[in-house]
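sry for the spam today, last one i promise. struct tokens for design, 216 residues
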């Protein structure tokens, strides 16, 4: 089979697919003897700058509308369910710390995680069970999915924004930042108070010693 014919087969498989596919899945559906990656590279170059583009998200390939045309094709739809703050925080913890257990999520958040919170994230297709940690009790651990990367336009978890990026974008809660700053000031104040108390205790001890000497 010629290279051009193989590229056309890969293109057809991608157009017919109902969900993003890995390179191995594409090769199997297209009946290729070798890897589909060279053909995918050809198609990615061919569609670059067109109305649709071939993209790879989390090791899976699919066609999507060009990013600069998304605003034209955007349509309004009723969202049946929005994520709660607890779900958003849990999703963020899993994304930045995966694989992570429920106990580890609770330790980071400082509050218990309701079972329904993880169920919502798994129903959305953004979180999946990733096995069990080899420790006593063998707790279930969780990780994000390829759908999570695709939904948020990430090639991999390395593309997640860092703390400085979040702060620059104004996505950190200013109240939380202020409380954190006040907590640091309170710690400094406690240190200062301790030093003052110690100094006062020394002065009292010195006065007592001088009194004892005078009495003697």
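last one done:
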């Amino acid at each position: 089979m010629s290279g051009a014919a193989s590229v056309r087969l890969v293109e057809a498989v991608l157009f017919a697919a109902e969900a993003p596919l890995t390179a191995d899945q594409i090769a199997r559906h297209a009946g290729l003897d070798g890897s589909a990656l060279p053909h995918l590279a050809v198609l990615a170059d061919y569609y670059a700058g067109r109305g649709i583009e071939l993209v790879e998200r989390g090791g899976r390939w699919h066609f999507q509308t060009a990013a600069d045309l998304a605003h034209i094709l955007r349509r309004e739809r009723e969202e049946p369910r929005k994520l709660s703050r607890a779900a958003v925080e849990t999703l963020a913890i899993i994304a930045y710390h995966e694989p992570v257990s429920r106990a580890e999520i609770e330790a980071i958040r400082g509050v218990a995680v309701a079972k329904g919170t993880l169920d919502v994230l798994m129903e959305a297709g953004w979180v999946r069970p990733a096995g069990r940690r080899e420790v006593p009790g063998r707790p279930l651990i969780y990780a994000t999915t390829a759908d999570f990367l695709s939904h948020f336009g990430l090639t991999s978890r390395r593309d997640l924004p860092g703390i400085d990026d979040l702060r620059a974008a104004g996505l950190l809660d200013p109240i939380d930042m202020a409380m954190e700053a006040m907590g640091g000031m309170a710690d400094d104040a406690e240190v200062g108070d301790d030093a003052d108390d110690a100094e006062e205790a020394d002065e009292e001890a010195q006065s007592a010693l001088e009194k004892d000497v005078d009495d003697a």
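The beta strands are 21-22, 52-57, 60-65, 100-101, 127-132, 140-144. ok im logging off now
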